[in-house]
Each structure stands twice: as C-alpha cells, then as structure tokens.
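Reviewer comment 2.1 asked that we show a complete input and output for one of the modelled complexes. We chose the magnesium ion case, as it is the one discussed in the main text.
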Amino acid sequence: METTVFRLEGVTKRYGDLVALDNVSLDVGVNEYVSFLGPSGSGKTTLLRVIAGFETPEVGRVFFEGRDITYQPAHERGIGFVFQNFALFPHLTVIGNVGFGLAHGKTPVAPAEVDRRARKMIDLVGLSGMEDRGVDQISGGQRQRVALARTLAMQPKLVLLDEPLGALDANLRGRMRNELRAIRERLGVTFLHVTGSENEALAMGDRVVVLDRGRIIQSGRSDEVYDTPASPDVAHFLNRFNLFEGRLADARFTGPFGSVAAPVARRSDRDIYAVRYDRMRVLPAQAATDGPALKATFVASEYLGSSIMNFFETADGKVVEMEHHLSLGAPDTYEAKRDYILTWNPDLAIVFGREGR
Ligand code: ADP
Ligand code: MG
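Response of the prediction step:
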C-alpha cells in the first residue's frame, strides 16, 4: 500500500544569492494534515510554490503519488492551492466562482455536473443559501470559504494552504480551523497548511514542520514538537516558552533564577533554559523555595478565552509569561507593580547546552 503521497528530496531553491530553500526533504502521508511554521522569510511560501509547480528547484526532486513531477507544469499536477490573498472573480456569484475551474478546466465537465459539484462544495464550507450572492455581498470570512470551495471543487488529492486564515479575525479563524479539519476528514485529502501562527500550527496539524532560513529544523507530531522542541529556535518560534540565558555546567544550569539541577540536556550551540508558560507558578515575594526562584514584577494580564496570560518583568527588563488554563480553576489575581517569585518544577524544564547530548 502506498502511504507516502508526496515527497521532497533534497530540494534547494535559490533567488540569486539568496537560498530560499536549503536541501529540504520531506515525506507526507495519505490523508495527513501538515502545518508549516516559521518566521517570515523562512521559505514557507517558496516551499508551497515548489510543490505546486510555480517554481522549479535548482537541486532536488519532487514526487507526487510516486511520480517525479519536478518539471511538470503546475496546471497538470492536480494540486489545489489557496493563497493568502485569494482573488475571486468579482463579477461572478458564489456558485459561479466555485464552479469556474470545473466549467473551464482542461477536461470539460457537463453544466449539470458543475452545478452539482459546486453546490456540494458550497454546502461543505457552510455557505448553503448563498449560492447566488455576488462575492461583494458576503463577508471576508465567507469569501475565504468561497476560495476554499473553489479549490476543493477540483477534487485535488493535495491541497496547499498559504496562511489562508491570516486575514480573518480570531473568532472566525477558530471556526475555520475546525471546519478545515472536518473537511479534510470527510474528503480524505492531504492538506499542507502554512501558518505564521504557532497556535494554529499546534491546533491544526497532525504534524508540524518548523522552518528556519530555508531549512527544516524540526518535524514531528504537534504534541511532540510542543513538548520537546529540538532547539532553542524551535522553542522560540512556538511562542510557548520562556527562554533564559545562563550557563550549563556539570549537569546544573545557572541562570537568573539561581542554580538548578539539569540532569538531562539537549545538545545545542547555546546554553538556554526553557520553561513553558503554563509550567510557571507564582509565589509571594517572601516565599521560601528550594527550587528555581525568579524575582519578577507583575505587569498585566490578558484574557485569551481558554486561559489567562500573566506578564511579569524581571529586574533586567525581560518579560516572563505565565499561562493559567481556566480549565484548572479560577485564576489568582496579582497586583500590578508588586514583586513576586516565579518558580516551576525543574523536571518539566527543557535545557539546551553545549554539554548536552
Ligand atoms: P515565508 O513565506 O516563510 O515568509 P518566502 O518563501 O516567501 O518566506 O521567502 C523566503 C525567502 O526568499 C525570503 O528571503 C524572500 O525574500 C525570498 N524570496 C521569495 N520569493 C522571491 C522572489 N520571487 N525573488 C527573490 N526573492 C524571493
Ligand atoms: Mg509566505
């Protein structure tokens, strides 16, 4: 049984002197949902463009369903693409947009069949009843769904999404995430989803691939990446960890919170101590603790729906974040400008360093 639907082998893509993709290899399975995460300029869009066939790599190969498609034109690949700045046809209705590719594609589809398939996709993205509206008579979020339905109507085996939810407000984004997942499950297609948002990547993906400067720096199940980032850079991009500089020596890490045992450390070119936001605990300033103790002043908190983020600042101006999941009960409240001690269970910290392995 063929389980790999898509494969990149040692793909390098340059723009002049700039290496946008640097020896990228990747296998994607049937019916997988892969999220790509990375800072702006890390090569996410270039990667999708190579897969879609809008760019040809200088080095490496692209395989789709076992065939080498490195030099196959984009329109022959059967790969769907939803851009961040999707362009709908402004003079067409919702159904006109969704059916356009079917009606005008390489293989002609009878009008009744175009209509049937377009209606099915419109239903799938939750726009039933809006078939005959103009696309200027629906909201931004609904237009995004039309763009998605238009792509799905072509029945691609692989769908590429380049920050498709970036333009939506937070509320709508959450709903679209759930719908994308449901659509994927119903259609059994493989999704590759580029996102600038770590929350989205962790929420959406079976697998998260982290890119930095054109390279894959980690690829794994989203909970694995979240629990065990492979490097300080990954931990940084996940935006879920407080990172402290310091020194790792003789299985102890000495940082702004004192010196704590660090029996397990991952090899890295920098000594960095990482503690997830939701592992931090807050103690009164006078509290005695034999664990890590970071003096910090409470600044403000922010309500995020399912959790509360509390922001503290250390004497040298570093912001430290502490997340309280509301499922764990009502949050404590802290007084602005007051000093506290932040601590955590050192077994739950992730230590990187030159003496790690
Ligand atoms: P991302 O989508 O992760 O923000 P991109 O794939 O768009 O990153 O870009 C990766 C790098 O390649 C960036 O440094 C970008 O400036 C460069 N780049 C992308 N497209 C082009 C292009 N057509 N010409 C020149 N440089 C480009
Ligand atoms: Mg991009």
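The longest strand covers residues 4-15. We note this here for comparison with the apo prediction described in Section 3.2.
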